[in-house]
Amino acid sequence: MKKNKILYGLLLSSLFSACMVDNGKEVIDELNTGTDNLTFTLTRAGEEVNNSQVYLFDGDGLHQGQFKMKVPRINYGTNQLSMTVDAGRWDIALVTAATSLEGKLISPVRGSARSALKMWETKPENGVLPSMPELRTVLIKNQQVIANTNNTAATGSIYRNVAKIRVSIVDASGLDITGTSTVELSNVPTTLNWDGGLYPDKNSPAVSPSPMRGTFTITNKASKPGSQESNVLEFIVPAHKGTDFLNASPTDTTTNKIKLAIDLATVGGGRYKRQDVEITRVPRLNGILDVKLTIASNLDVSADVLTWLDTFINSDVSATQMQLDKASVGLSHKDTLFVNTNASTFTVEKAADATWLTVNKLNSNAIELIADLSSYTVDRSSYITVKANNISKKVPVTQRPDVGTISVDQSRLVFCPNHTTRVTNITTKVGGWKILAQSTKATASATTGNKGTTAVTFTRAT
Q1: CA-to-CA distance for 238 and 170, rounded, in angstroms?
Q2: Residue of 236, 288, 376, 446 with fewest CB within 10 Å of its CB?
Q3: Sheet containing 391-399: order of strands
Q4: Contact 266, 175 (CB under 8 A)
């Protein structure tokens, strides 16, 4: 018999069964067939991540730009979103905010273009139009998603799809600081489409029949006796996301102008009122329309568009990739599995029944597997699971014989009346060995041994 086997059917502790490559491949293919994994990485962590929603639109072909589906399951990380989507070319719309958007976005209608579909609509409450959340949106166009392969990532920037309007009285006199003084904004847009533009048209958007309203707090200026000022009131309204909104002076903007009305209490019980005063500047996406009121005998209105700080969140839409250097592991005692992934990290877990297996993550791309030798009696198999973001791969692990790990220097033992004993040297390169079963024709002087070479004497039975 060959040197790597022992006469009389002896089984040693470092003999293992063959690996089940086919079964392992079947598990991996089943996990990945027809899908691929996308990850959004946001530079700001917090509620913007947790409240994000993702919608898919056809990216090419006859139905380009038409709604397909809302991604139903999203894994929310500290500053990441990961999800599984079908293979294809997609226009991917991500919408997020600091507050929950559950039930607030208007679900698109299948078969309709994004620009014709409402995404958000602010509705009056008790006759007053409230501010809307600071919606942030990004549209990644024609993102290709290929099943079972690596995908080229697209990059976009998530900008506020709103504008802030600030209104304040910077100089006035004769106002009653104990009275009620209000401002109202009218002709305010209410609705955005799924392209991020004003709905139905940037120049004739849907506007609210009810005004936005705020109440001033009037104070006397300490630095200028006889002069008064107010606090700053802030309102958040939809803003048109044109094709050149990133430019310092964009031209694809709305022409719809907002109007204001003031009703101020004056000393002596009178009122100072002005209606339908047009603000000369229009709100700009991700900008602040700063409106300052000066009240003397007439009302003077000045308006400037300012840059809104914290202008955007960078987003990276990438295909999470993970490759293993082997589909399954067959080992006698130790082996190393190498992991290649573009994720920031990965995890590894072993199955509950793999009590005989020790798994150590060595570094950023290596996993050490150690099979127990002392408890080995028969061939055994289990699996480990390697995860990177929401990619998960099962790797079968089997304790098996490796050629050359164990050797004996006698291919067979022959006894006779004058030669009742025979000696054979058993050599193991990894770990110890033991005899699991013996022939009735001879008895061994030792049934276990340590790593290295052990001389074992077999004595013939009478």
Answers
A1: 26
A2: 446
A3: 329-331, 391-399, 380-388, 347-350
A4: yes
Angstrom distance (rounded) from CA 42 to CA 315: 5
Tell me how many helices (H) and strands (E) the chain has.
2, 35
Distance between CA atoms of 203 and 184, rounded to whole angstroms?
A: 22
Q: Identify the three-state secondary structure at position 24.
A: helix
18 neighbors 401 (Cβ within 8 angstroms): no
Q: Measure Cα distances from 367 to 260, 339, 347 in Å.
A: 66, 8, 10
Q: 257: helix, coil or strand?
A: coil
Strand locations in 296-389, DSSP E? 299-307, 312-319, 322-324, 329-331, 334-341, 347-350, 357-363, 366-371, 380-388
Helix, strand, or coil here: 443?
Answer: strand
Angle at 300 between CA 299 and CA 304, to 5 degrees: 140
Distances (CA, A) of 130 to 124, 184, 209, 259, 440: 6, 11, 12, 16, 93
> Does residue 199 register a pLDDT over 60?
yes
Sheet containing strand 442-444, strands side by side: 406-408, 421-428, 452-460, 442-444
Q: Are 95 and 107 in contact (CB under 8 A)?
A: no
pTM value is 0.61
Residue 203: DSSP 8-state: S
Query: How big is the chain, counted in residues?
Result: 462
Q: How many CA atoms lie within 13 A of 251 on its CB side?
A: 0
Asked whether 346 and 362 are in contact (CB, 8 A), the reply is no
Task: Report strand pairing: 329-331 vs 391-399.
Answer: parallel
Phi, psi of 429 (to 5 degrees): -90, -25
**Rg of the chain's alpha carbons, rounded to an integer?**
37
* Band (331; pLDDT cuts 50, 70, 90): confident
Q: pLDDT tens-digit profile of 31-55?
A: 233 345 666 666 554 556 788 899 9
Most confident range (mean pLDDT) of 79-88, 304-313, 339-348, 401-410 is: 339-348
Upstream peptide bond of 200 is cis (omega within 30 degrees of 0): yes
Q: Identify the residue with better confidence: 78 or 118.
A: 118
